[in-house]
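Please, structure for the following, as tokens.
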Amino acid sequence: MADYARLLEAANEARRNSYCPYSGFAVGAALLTTDGTVYTGVNVENASYGATNCAERTAVFKAVADGKRKGDFVAIAISGGPKDGSPVPCPPCGICRQVLSEFTDAATFTVLWVTEITDGDMAFEKHTLAELLPGAFEL
């Protein structure tokens, strides 16, 4: 299976580029595709909060813009926390879960989030998207 350490580190590294002047809560995501490509994303806040975009969706949209489609995604890692602090548990929001369900097999797609970093080692939670979004909306 995927190299979770590499994916978690990419999410944590991406978090540094978050644009979060209003909340101060930075989120980074790293989305792994079947060909081994990792697409990163960050949350991008806006003074009009409705225009804000989450890190997970930023990563998905970058991958889709690059031609990736349903079946091309293996896992996503998320790192969130204070802009200048250590990560705290940050599961994906409902909108991000729904967007992920559009492009993945929820039963096999892995969702990871960093829970803490101790002495350089990242602890994380691991779930399938189906566990996090039972009964996803589908057409």
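The chain is about 25% helix and 30% strand. The mean pLDDT is 95.
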